[in-house]
Specification:
This protein has 419 residues and is α/β, with parallel strands linked by helices. The protein has ten helices and 20 strands.
């Protein structure tokens, strides 16, 4: 087991606030390791695309596909319709999903393979919307994807610039209003003051206007990775929500959540220590309304946090009064990236989509046991491993890198949701 590693960091560290001389001095060195300006300078010719793919060791030497549906749709900076008053019911992930959004990691070549695996796993069961910072990226990405999979019309590109790739956190949180229509909830997104995040903060609003889905504002600092729900009255967050809103009491935070989300019971889990996001999707995952997957308690340092989370659900019940069955996943020990960043690999950071579960794997022995536990917990699902060895160095995996969108049709479960 290696405690110290020097892996690429999938965050734009060169854009963080720093003295001008340091920014200028670091750029030439950074360009040797990452395409630091790639989002602003997309390849605009077949030759430039080939040069980019070769330079960064990416497959895709074949000619780009000519299908017109691969032409990116431009998402304008428009104002969405306001949603009517009334709480919004968030569906559970085992309910139907219409589409999944991914932000393509044009700045991080090491992540392209993992994203391609996600697209390949998602495309047979849902629409895949790939957000890109410039139209020129559609050709490079489609060429890369076509080298390993068959592209289908369900894969679409959206020209929608963002500051980063973690779309779970800033992307549209879509649920159902009292009339059964879709509503996008838009909280405040600005968790990292040292990084530019204005475009991320506006992404959900712009996408909702483009999709013609009305928006409800939520006056809380909240990321999508810190919400789980069973879709029937139970909302689960980690205690990070209180750290993110330090000027509000716990009662005030819960009141703001209840003013927008339709739930009867709030369960608050511990957050991991020395883990930057604090999100609940790194601690637990709902397999179904009564089955909770939790990281194992044996890992050092955060073992107490994971034990507390498991014990919490063993004591708790859902909003429907049903007790939970708790299954423990492996919790690999952390390592230090560049001697500074503690990296926590979490198998709960998985995505359930229309009969499939995309589970992160890291190329370690624990992977096999984690996949076996998922098969035990979710026997009616196809369990699909996704290589997240590179993405985990940014603090997340499959769930953090995706944003699921429910269908427009009225949910069958809505009639049983709390009033």
């Amino acid at each position: 087991m290696r405690i110290l590693r020097f892996d690429p960091i999938p965050y734009p560290i060169w854009r963080r606030r720093m003295p001008g001389w340091l920014r200028t001095a670091s750029r030439p060195l950074l360009r040797r390791w990452l395409p630091v300006d790639a989002d602003e300078r997309a390849p605009d010719t077949p030759e430039a695309t080939t040069a980019y793919l070769r330079r960064w060791g990416l497959a895709g030497e074949n000619s780009p596909p000519d299908e017109k549906w691969l032409t990116p749709k431009s998402v304008p900076d428009a104002e969405p319709r306001p949603a009517p008053d009334g709480p919004v019911r968030l569906p559970a992930q085992w309910e139907p999903v219409e589409a999944v959004i991914l932000t393509w990691p044009v700045l991080y070549p090491a992540l392209w393979d993992g994203h391609a695996q996600m697209v390949s796993a998602l495309a047979p069961v849902a629409k895949v919307l790939i957000s890109i910072p410039a139209p020129g990226w559609a050709g490079a990405i489609s060429r890369f994807l076509s080298a390993t999979m068959r592209l289908t019309p369900g894969i679409r590109f959206l020209h929608l610039p963002t500051d980063d790739i973690w779309v779970r956190d800033y992307g549209p949180i879509v649920g159902y209003g009292a009339d059964g229509g879709r509503v996008c909830v838009k909280p405040v997104f600005d968790p990292l003051p040292s990084y530019p995040q204005a475009r991320d903060n506006q992404m959900a609003r712009r996408w909702a206007a483009f999709a013609d889905i009305p928006v409800r504002a939520l006056d809380l600092h909240l990321e999508g990775g810190n919400i789980w729900t069973d879709g029937a009255g139970t909302l689960i967050v980690s205690e990070q929500i209180f750290y993110s809103n330090p000027y509000l009491s716990r009662a005030d935070v819960e009141a703001k959540l209840r003013a927008v989300f339709n739930f009867r019971k709030l369960i608050v889990t511990p957050r991991l220590k020395r883990e930057e996001t604090g999100h609940v999707d790194l601690v637990v995952k709902l397999a179904d309304a009564q089955t909770v997957l939790v990281g194992a308690r044996g890992v050092f340092y955060n073992g107490g946090q994971l034990r507390a989370a498991a014990d919490l659900f063993r004591r708790e019940s859902s909003a429907a009064g049903l007790p939970y069955r708790v299954l423990e996943l492996p919790a690999p020990p952390p390592y230090l990236n560049w001697g500074v960043y503690p990296i926590w690999r979490s198998y709960t950071n998985a995505l359930t989509v229309n009969g499939r579960v995309l589970v992160p794997v890291f190329g370690i022995p624990d992977d096999a046991r984690a996949l076996a536990i998922y098969r035990e917990a979710m026997p009616g699902y196809e369990i699909v491993p996704i290589n997240c060895r590179a993405s985990v160095n940014g603090g997340g995996a499959v769930h953090c890198l995706t944003r699921d969108i429910p269908p427009a049709a009225r949910s069958e479960l809505f009639a049983n949701a709390p009033a």
